[in-house]
Write a structure and sequence with these properties.
Blueprint (H helix, E strand, L loop, with lengths): L13 H41 L9 H9 L8 H9 L5 H9 L9 H26 L6 H27 L16 H14 L5 H13 L4 H9 L4 H27 L9 H20 L13
Length: 305
Amino acid sequence: MQIGDLNGDGIIDYKDAQIAFAKAGDLSKKIVQNASDSTGKKIADAKMVIINAIDQNGNGQIDVKDLIIAGLNCPGIKINREKFLKTEFGNKYSQKVIDDAIANNPAHANIPLQDIDLIDEDVIQNERIAVSGISAVLGTPGGAAMLATIPTDIIQYYGYMLRATQKLLYLYGFPQIDTNEDGKALDSGTMNILIICLGVMYGVAGANKALNVVCTALGKGVEKKLLAAALTKGTIYPFVKKVATWFSVNMTKELFAGFFKKAIPVVGGVVGGAITYASFKPCCEKLKDALKDTILSNPEEHKND
């Protein structure tokens, strides 16, 4: 049989070509299927690498508590309220005003909201630049090396988001957040406040209302124990649970459908500084706007204190 005579009729003609095209098509399908299976396995393996790196409570998935714990454990993320307020107000106000802001809050010290607006814009921009720079550096490796950078990139992103969160909370009247500098586990009340803040940043329904309730309680001098009870098992807790549920449902989906596609090498290109830069500010702006609109941050509410 001649080379190319695929049907064995002794001649090479269009029928042989049809057979060749059909076989080529079958081979192409097998190649595509094998590549798809291989890519799928690589993505599945990569997902588990990232989940295992970020999963702080060992439940096999990434949830909002994992992001908070991992983020706060990054060096330099925990903010000391007193030092921060001294730094921000030190060159602008008298010592008496600064002491009042630290002992109570900036609104009680009658610091105008427009002044705080200028500071919070700098805070958001500085944290945005910092985390975007880290993201860009982590995005430098190529090939399989990129996979190892992804958990760090995610944790750093949420770490800086929590760093900005603390600063915004302090500018708009919150007391020191107990982030446990001594390394002990984060208390439930603090965890739930941070969950609410991340909910506000991501526009989760009910998160703004929950934050306003917390701010009102603080503004009216509700005892810390009562507020903690409301946050962990009382009136505010259903909102916390709703935000946490939203993250459980959406976080992994979004991570592995949007962010993840940009991050995994087999799909294409690590998430870069430009993407981080674009996404960071809108989240912080949502939290800032929510905090500005509470009795805790309104100087008029503190005139008779």
